[in-house]
Queue: 2 jobs
Job 1
Amino acid sequence: MWGYRALLRLLPASFRAEYGGEMSAVFARRRGEARGPLGAAVLWAVAAFDVAGTALGVHAEILRQDLGTVARSVRRSPGFATTVVVVAALGVGATTAAFTITDHVLLRPLPFPEPDRIVRLSQIQAARGYQDMELSPANYRDWKRMSRSFAAMAAFHGLSANLVGEGPPERLQGTAVTDEVLAVLGAKPLLGRSFTPEDGREGATGTLLLSHGLWQGRFGGDRTVVGRKVLLDDAPHEVIGVMPPGFHFPSREARFWAAMRLGERDFERRDDFYLEVVARLKAEASLGGAGAEMRLVAAQLEEQYPDTNERIGATVVGFHDYQVRRQARHLLVALFGAALGVLLIACTNLASLFLARALERRREISVRAALGAGRERLVRQLLTESLLLGAVGGGLGVALAAAALPLTARLVPNSLPIAETPPLDPRVLAFAALMTLVTALGFGLVPALRVFRDAHADGLREGARAGGGRKERLRSTLVVAEVTVAVVLLVSSGLLIRALLRVQGVDPGFRAEGVLTLRTWLPLPRYEKTADRARFYREVLGETRALPGVAGAAYVSGLPMVMRGGIWGIEAEGGEPGKPGAGSTASIRYVTPGLFRALEIPVRRGRDVTEADTEGALSAAVVSESFAARYWPGEDPLGRRFRFGLLGGTRLAVLGAFQDRTVVGVVGDVRVRGLERTSEPQVYLPYLQAPEGAMGWYTPKDLVVRSDLDTAALVPALRRIIARADPDQPVSDVRPLSEIVETETAPRRVQVRVLGAFAGLALLLAGIGIHGLLAFTVSSRRPEIGVRLALGATREDVLGLVLRHGLRLGATGAARGLAQAGAAGRGLEALLAGVSPRDLATFLAAAGVAVSTALLGSLLPAVRATRVDPLTVMRAE
Amino acid sequence: MMAILESMAHTHADVLSLLPLPLATFHILLALADADRHGYAIIQDVAARTGGELKLGAGTLYRSIHRMLEEGLVAELRERPAPEEDDERRRYYRITPFGAAVARAEARRLSELVRLARAAGLAPGRA
């Protein structure tokens, strides 16, 4: 019989209590009549169906009744229902958004088969402080040949090329790869074929795989694109295939992949580091084992090639870990923590709301219990209410999260081979549902049970004051906890705001407002000759300067904060001798005349470069103030001479042909490396003194135009001018210089906005919590307030009484919050740009805001308390 | 309590609002028409009446009875009808006047349906 009784557990307890015994008796009689094992089996099967069907029906009936009750109670007190739904929506929404993004970036494996086996290999040169360096082709070839841990290994490097043919010429970001790259990633083209070793031979025709986006956008999704010829930087390339949508490598910026063609000449240089390396571990190999093997390989190479490989080691890091930088990881963890904080407050608020609600209903519940309603039945009804309201709130929360995704999506690091906007997928929805369930169950059930327990004891006693001291203390504790969490979040976002302001306050060394920039990357070998380039620059600049409103225009080989490299060693005459790697370096830019005026970089001494600084004339250079101060402190730098030394080996030997440079001018310093990093001193060289030949990276390619009028209006005219100078020349990266400077602080602004939003939410919820508690306290203490007023207390006394209560809650929470905020601040230190994690002003401001919110939340209940009419309440008592 | 209150104030509209009756409900009313019975007796009576065609499960039976009690079709007896046969645990049910009225209305509804079917030549017997 225990089997049947177990089956009866499916029924609601109230129904079981009523009919369980009867049903068991019927079943016992039936079993007595059943013949043989077959008869018993049939009986059991029929009984199981019967009980399950009945259970379903009875549960549905009860649910229908409870929903009716909920609907009535929502109509009776819509304020309560709205508050619960809003609070639940905010809590679930915040957590869901944060989980979506954290899951997308940190938890979810990369979209490749067995992504854990994909690793990054890099060189390290600890002596010079390089943690991960690219490899030279020669080292790459040896690493690949000498290692046994990898099923496949491939090299790649970033590429940027002009694509000509099919529509207007365009500058595209792509990646040059060796043939095994798709084998490493475990990816296959959607159309066409993968790369073969043949494609990588020196002298082979260029081959190209298109990204799905490029194929759709530029080739209109034409399936006959495979086999088509296009020009990439003037060189013929054949399209061999198209990658599937969602395939990104190494990041989502690459729009095509070209076969890297390495010849014997490329393998000669062992110290020309430009290859990044990915590999797939063999099934039996471990990350640690592969690391040990590669260190051994590096040691052997160091022994074999002491000149170039001295103290060069190797590291093997998981691809995912490598691409998600530590700062991004910190930020996401902070974000998730903030979201959990908001959820915690939301739950606390809901608990407090339901508790108050249950206390208010104590009389109703006691009456129903006295009339024989079972405990299970009453608790179930209360739970239906909290679950239903929670579910509505949760649904709204998911909608909120979906709406907030475009903002949070900006926290996805660019360096990952995944889509930018995380999808709201079943995992996320399951997470949201779980959060809703936990919130509604945990904080609906506990108060319900609690009230039911007490209901028997004293609910019916006439005039019992709702909410004893104990319960009010519990609610006070909850509210204080809310304020605590809100203050921690306030301090955290306050510190980030301070950091943002500090970074935004940094003078970049030029004036970005009113400057438009665009890029015309002149392809080689067509523009190998300095004279050809000069003709292009002169034509474009001459016409640009004639445009109305243009106050200055110039070409430069790299914009500050965009091109951060171009760092050469310096040996200054009469100054301290240049030591490679010892920091005697400068960032080098080739410029046309007029750059300093266009960017408003102040010329301190001497002159700008001019059209007269030609090959054969004096080798001139304009240096920045820090350059002059470093090599010739306290002396006149004009007329002093320096040379480019060797840095990082012989790659710069090609520059050995350079003559000594003579300083002709001194200008202000520029934050080349960005607002948050120290930059090397700068050297500007006349564009007419640039070397002939393959120096593509150093030829001027960025046009800067300062205009008194709207810079955006200049774009069509500039495009026409460039098309006249060279119809095949693509124009790319059109944007205001101010946008580049803003991009510098964009991640910070997103951080501030997201964390600030969470802090604001937390504060709002804490305010609601304080308001709810005090409103409840005031309404349950009306008799007491009435007595006080009758005994001669003034309205001001009553107002003060309630406000002091709110203030006490706010101040206690703020004090605890400040104590905790110290720890949170230390966790954020990496993001603070030098602002102290114990910044006093921020702490004070956060405490002030929290206490003000507490006061604001108490205001309405306090005013209501003063309106209590002593006569009415005492009569009611 | 509710059943008693309701049985006192039933109108013709109340009767019609319950039609058509679920099959199990109708059979339970038929089983209780001639005698007060406990659950197992109802099941046996229904089975005998239908020639073993309809064997009510315990769950179906008590769920129907639960609803019929709320609707006022049947009432649970406080006193036991035949103490010598009585099983302590058994609950006995009796049809209420309202229950009888509803069963009669259902029977009328069904015979009206049969009459219509005959007229259409879809059932045996005279039109």
Job 2
Amino acid sequence: MTYYVFTLVFFLFDYFILAMGLNIQYGVTGILNFAYIGFVAVGAYVTGVAAMPSNINGEHYILGLGLPFPLNTLLGGIAAMGLSALVALITLRRLRTDYLAIVLISLSLVLYDFCNNYVSLFNGADGLYNVPEPFAQSLGLGANGFIVFFACLTGVVSLILLFVMRRVMRAPLGRTFRAVRDDHVTAAALGKDTFRMQLKAMMIGSFFAGIGGGLLIQFGGSFNPTAWLPGETFVVFAVLIVGGAGNNMGMFVGALLVETLLIHLPAFLPEIPGHPGLIEYFDLALVGIVLMVMLWVRPQGIVPERLRRTPSFGVTPKLDDEAGELDRTTALAGVKVAVAGTEEAR
Amino acid sequence: MSVVDPSRPAASTSVSPALRCEGLTKAFQGVHAVNGAAFSIPEGQITALIGPNGAGKTTVVNMLSGAMKSDSGRMFIGETETTGWPSHKVARHGLLRTFQLSRELGGLTVLENLLTAAPNQAGDSLVNVLLRPGLIERQERENAERALQLLEVYGLYRHRDTPARELSGGQKKLLEIARAVMGSPRILLLDEPMAGVNPALIDVLGGYIRDLKKDGVTILMVEHNLGVVEQICDHVIVLAEGRTLATGRLADLRQNTEVVKAYLGEVMDASSAD
Amino acid sequence: MTLFWLSFGFGLVTTSVLAIAAIGLSLQFGITNYVNFAYGDFMALGAFFAYVLNNQLLHLNIWIALPIAALLMGVFGVVINRVLLGPFARRFKSTHYVLIVTFGLSLVMLNIIYSIWGSDVRFYALPLGTAHHIGPLLLTDNQLIVMGIALALLVAVHTTLKATSLGKSMRAMSDNGTLAMTSGIDTKRITTITWFLSGALAGVAGTVLGISEGNLTPAAGELFLFVIFAAVILGGIGSIYGAMAGAVVVGMSTEISAAFINPAYKLDIAFVALILTLLIRPNGLISRPGLTT
């Protein structure tokens, strides 16, 4: 029983992290990253080969650094971040939305194909296995104990990452991201380097993707290409859109509903005899349908993006809400001072 | 005032022109929208860019602001050449523009629209966001104070928390200008600020624009409404068929046969509003 | 019979399959202005319809099953557009939504195909043909028929676009949809016809892919999709002739390269071609304006 529940808990928190990553890219900045799962995979693989010792019999892979948690996972995050920067440099600068989506989904497929075939990289189609479970030995955890422990650990990591993401989204940076999403021509006309902003969003989001992937591989102890066909990106999009793109609470709700309930709960249902995998197929098809219904009926998601009210710094303009006779000269003098001031600053 | 040789920028009244262009051309699929436009904008004055439909005015504005690349020609802000600069670089150098069809950042509130325009924000850097929250908070506070005052001036204070997409057409026009002013421009390019605006608001907007001049902002406005041009502009540049036709004061230009000919088919009348 | 000429022969076949698929994709993109990410699954569904007709419920000759499957997929395309994609495209200003929907449709279709036919590999019942020596090339009957179909379809599409009023309307809509609408072109009808053609071509492409590969799997269409994308982007997205040209370049280069490098990576060569195109000439060989930022 604990096994079931805490496996669900793990996937809830892990997909919460993944959704936050895609959210900053798509929900907040408007980048349709159809290759998202590729970055998750890179994070998983790099974490794996960073964690594994230099040689395990029967497996072929690069690196093999034997690093402990959290170093190995951080490496995974950084690797994903680095790849996203490269991808952004080649694609984001030049392409508009659907063209970009095509290239990204192709990238996802090619990465998949490549990892499947190039055995010495990440052990090809078999994937990595026997990935060390963090703290399992040092804490003397059995199989069940490890699951409970790691699910909670993932929860902690997700809270830390949530804190970081909230900081970003509330800062001017988050606002600029949303400006780029709403109208990148206007954002540029206001002085924002839209490419650099998109690059930042890609990198931050991919870092989250990498961490999420790194946690995945250490939870299961293994990771192979079947885990990340391009369709898996769609599941993360479903989490986003069902929950509510653009805000972190929505990510949690989406992860709960889509990943935990829709995807993983049915995995515990008994197989229908004579039709292996049927439940899984129906399940995924259902996710697709749920998303389409959601997009039609309530595109803002269950938890819509929050309106940001004027923060109370204790700022009180001299004039009140009712339109009285405005002393425009005085108010504009304030503007003039600001204009002159920043001129000097230039 | 007489017809100026289009290839030579007109002399301006101050030391060096705030904005200058020469030999600008731009073609779209073989059709030349702009074909050798050249002019200079004097510092601290309100200049109008007028001309019949299809004269290339908005294209010129797009090129000056960096939104579009010119096929040939050069542009200068003060002494700095800005040819080929992307729009965000031009904006950071002090030239801001508004759009003929208001482009509000719909998902952001009115206040956020202005805050986005605030120049030199440390909070745009990820490093600062993670490591220097205090600095960012301080800047945000300063920017917010200024933005709220601006909103009050432009009559938008009570809508400060309204998503910009919910504003009325006239309010969006006001937001468009307020936002540009927030960016502390040295030069402001207004693309048909009076287009589609009701007469009462035209007077108000005209007043705002005149006030900006008092604050030392150089203004270039594309405008069809010659009544407005007469009232608030010091200087007029006429564009026709993609090149500079004449410059000078509106009263003088009305007597200019070339200019009148270019406008043939359009009523060149003080009472004509668009 | 050198490896090179053998690969060249394969290249011609791959090019044929690619060309059919790429044209179907381009036609639809030109009219609707968004990419159908489920196109690969359209191909797969068409291939499986042909399988049912050829080797499961019925036992028709594959060359008869093929046009029937194409017809079915044409209808499928029209229905999907009517019921799903059209409404989404009309409702939202940003294309993000309909793109996500096509992505979702892809997931749904793939899994429904898996549910019905399972993940086992299937085979068509193909007539045993003979191999023919044509110059230095060695090609079987079936390969030659596939190439013939591709050629016939290319000619048909070209003629339709250039010489018929339907073709003119399609080209007009592709250039400027709003203008076409206000010029009195029945855009709804053209859209429906385009979806029919796109679906039908996908059905043909999926089936001939199965014939040339020697087997069918549900995911084959999806995996092939990015090769189609490479061809379409190389040629210049939105241009039919670009799609044809792209099909030739990508089809030939992937197969011929397989003679020199590990054949497992030949599809990845397509991706390299795509990236190179982006870096060097992002608008493609024959480009339309307005597709890059």
